[in-house]
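For the sake of transparency, this paper describes our internal protein records without simplification. Because each token names a local backbone shape, the row as a whole describes the fold. One such record is reproduced below, unchanged from the form in which we store it.
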Amino acid sequence: MHDTLEHYLSPLFEASSIAVFGVSKRENAIATVVFNNLLANNFDGPVIPINPKYNNIAGNPCFSHLAETNTPIQLAIVATPAETVPGILEQCGEHGVKAAIVLSAGFSESGQRGRELEHSIGDIAKRYDMRFIGPNCLGVIRPAHKFNATFAGGCVAKGNIALISQSGAICTAILDWAENQDIGFSVVVSMGISLDIDFGEILDYLIADPKTHSILMYVEGIREARAFMSGLRAAARVKPVIVVKAGRHQSSVIAAQSHTGALIGSDDVFDAALRRAGVVRGMHIGDLFAAATVLSRGLRIKGDKLALITNGGGPAAMACDKASDLNIPLAELSPTTIATLNAALPPMWSHGNPVDILGDADADRYETTTRTVLEDPEISGVIVILTPQAITDPENVAQRMATISHSQKKPMLACWMGERQVQTGRAILNDAAIPSFRLPETAVQGFSYLTDFYRNQKLLLQAPGSLFHDQKPDLDGARFIIASVLADKRSILTETESKAILAAFHIPIAPAVIAATPIDAVVAAENIGFPVAMKIHSKEISHKSDFGGVRLNITSAAAVHAIFEELTTTTRQQLPQASIEGVVVEPMARAQNGRELLVGIYRDPVFGPVITFGSGGATVEILADRAVSLPPLNRLLAQDLISRTRAAQLLKAFRNMPAVQIQAVENTLLRVSEIACELPEITELDINPLIADPEGVIAVDARIVVQRYQSSGVSYSHMAIHPYPSHLIHKVLLAGTQPCVIRPIRPEDSELERLFVEGLSENAKHYRFMNNFRKLPPEMLARFTQIDYDREMALIAVLTLNGEDIEIGVARYIINIDADSCEFAITVTDAWQGKGVAQILMGALMECARARGLQRMYGEVLADNHKMLRLARKLGFRVKRKPDDTTLVQAKIDL
């Protein structure tokens, strides 16, 4: 990467000079408290107070305007009345200040005038390219930089945990607790209203921050779902992220919205978003404390099997219950471990896990047991529980645990129950960096953050199976139908229009014939074949069954004729204002071995389109069997969505019913995901029922609701996760004769990419990776193929030879921390070098970077890679040898 680049938020988190607006001689004024906090922490740079009422504050010169000081200011801290903030930011912009923390309250949370002030300060900041935290926030703390720009009291120690919170009160509570627990922080950010800088950009900074090893977040609402998801997914790949969210129930939603002004959507959708990002969710504020206790120690785990060691059966039983609730398996002790414990423990020990070493256990017994259990290869980590009994010495046992922990890589957690008798022991455990808890349930909760992160990382490494990409949807046809409905000033599609949309995306549908007369209905039924179903057809009626507008299992022409008259007459009587255009005649869907399912799309106010799946049929509201996931889906995600419903068990073989064709159900979910991605006008889609049986699936009924969509100009702006950018796929001819597809890489390309990389010559591996590995590690393979198209791009060149796809080249860029430039890399197989592949890939990659709004592209090339250097010069790159490493050459181009 280019050595001189710094993160675009560095002026905020690593400021070298600060101006504080609103400092006064009132000691309890917010700006004065912040000013004194900065001085008390011995901030290294100048801290300049600004207040037109004073010439001097506590012996420090005070200025009336920023222009009066000759000091360049990187960061402004504003704690003045809301009405004054626009003028202050204006003078900051004129002075070249690039970052601000606006502590002031009185904005959107206070009504219309506050919203007008918000709009004003937002415009000013954009005009001067100034970034700010707040308003209505506690501020920012960066202990390693001696930087406490908050009005919180107490001392914040240096550590490796980042805390991000939309609530200043939550921040102060956690900081007060952490001070007594010897837990430190890399950064603390109270975001307030998040008018400018939101979660996504703070996460982006923390990903690259070497001082941050794990991240705690308290969330009340989300403003920018795309940036939030992109930041979460990138952070969770490299660091544990724990999120606690307010607003799980309606009463808390109202409270949180009034606090932050941000949007709060459905809680199960938020949960699905966190699952998708690989993030661990906590349900209570106490979970943040538990997570901080564990993560501050830097523990990591290589499995999820827990062992419990205890001197009391009751606490162990409580721990077992909690482990079961959290899906943490208790390890089965190996025969070797049991034999060793049999020789060391009294005959009445539990002979299993939990390892109950009895109420008279002394320090020797605790030490022997703990060492033995930790050596068992089946055990991933241990919780040691101690209750203060007559013979047990909490202090001596804690000292033995501290000694063990120094030479042990497996995580060890402790639960010293009680208070007065175990205080000294707890202090010893804390000094030894052993996470210590008062209750067995919270100890298990703490352990769960390690196992959840381990499971999330394993899930991220799984390679999805291949998808069917040969059946492209008829996008033009689907968009034409929607445009016609909107032009007709309708929002609800008829059943036949809805099914036509499904058919355009290759979802099997029950064919439907519209009959305007009883004779038309009879002819349609004879052509389809009995039995048939008949439904009223009207553009004004959406839920036909609610008005008795559906008849099933009709077996004769006479019945068809009579039911036509009955349906139309009854509907006109119940809904005289509705325009009745006839009936729809359909075949009765096969039902002998069929299961009724529901597949749909609905629009969440925060995260946009959401895919829903569950049991279908007339009882769907009563059963309430639903799971949700954010699009785009791949096959692994579709399988995960199905598995989280009770309907999943019904799809398997049971009694005399064979299993359904599960891949057909997955395919339907993948196609519905495509609809959600490509048709932003759709706000609701219900396929109910989707009948699944051993032969496949068929959509019996469908309902679609649309509304006009105004694009922001950003691709797929209606979605929280950027889907596969299919618009970048194009075909070229290599050497004038060989067809080749240039396209973005997919997660499903993992096998294609593995064969490509492992098949490179030693020379090609050396030039691309500066390494000659034989096998591509799974972590690297996942990193290459499961990319976030918002943050990076990888274009591959693919040939189809003898019906098999072969990757012959790849070019990729990753956006740098300055957010304006990117770093590129390119590799082409030896057999296709010198045939234009590299030039085509680099040209396409540079176009992608320009379209993304990037300004510059960099690349580091080995000095003896003459082919790459010739290509770089041909493409217009400026080539310069690196002064600090003569083996490398830097190529740079302005886009």
About this structure: The two ends are 17 Å apart (CA to CA). The chain has six domains: 1-136, 152-289, 297-461, 463-508+589-723, 511-586, 726-894.
